[in-house]
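From: lab user (bench 3)
To: helpdesk
Subject: output format question, protein + nickel (II) ion

Hello, I'm new to running complex predictions and I'm not sure whether the block I got back is the full result or only part of it. Here's what I submitted:
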Amino acid sequence: MALIPIITIPDPVLRKVAAPVPEITDRIQQLLTDMAETMYDAPGIGLAAPQINISQRLIVMDCGKDETPELFKMINPEIINRSHELAVLEEGCLSIPDQTADVERPAVVEVKYTDIAGDEKRLTCEGLLAACVQHEVDHLDGVLFIDHISRLKRDMIVRRFMKEMRQSGSGSPKGE
Ligand code: NI
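Helpdesk reply: Thanks, we reran it on our side. This is the complete output you should expect:
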């Protein structure tokens, strides 16, 4: 088990379309384990492989409440259904630390993915899990939550983040 450094904007890897995972190898299993550990340590509720500088279609999520963990490890996840109904939730991102914004997305989505046993699964997500899975699958396509808000707000967040990063002097406002 290992913690892996999380990359932040403007790293170009965050803007790349990640490659599908052709086969579930031991390396992929280990990567998902390390990603979950890295996510819990951050702490965060979701992490996509591009955020640890690996451009492959892997995500981990845990939107469980309080003491009840609910860890998902998804290989090649794909959103296959989206509700017309929309919901607004405040989002942040470990690759843009300490910045948040209200993001509007479909309220309910269905995701298709391969689990670590190699089985194809479908999961209907609502509430926080719906926002989280859309946010993480976006990462696999080089899309960030700030792409879903107005240009004015996006520019403000990016400027503020870059300023905090310069002031911290260590390359990360969290001092990691
Ligand atoms: Ni994110």
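A quick orientation on your result: Residues 93-95, 135, 139 surround nickel (II) ion (CB under 6 Å). Let us know if anything else is unclear.
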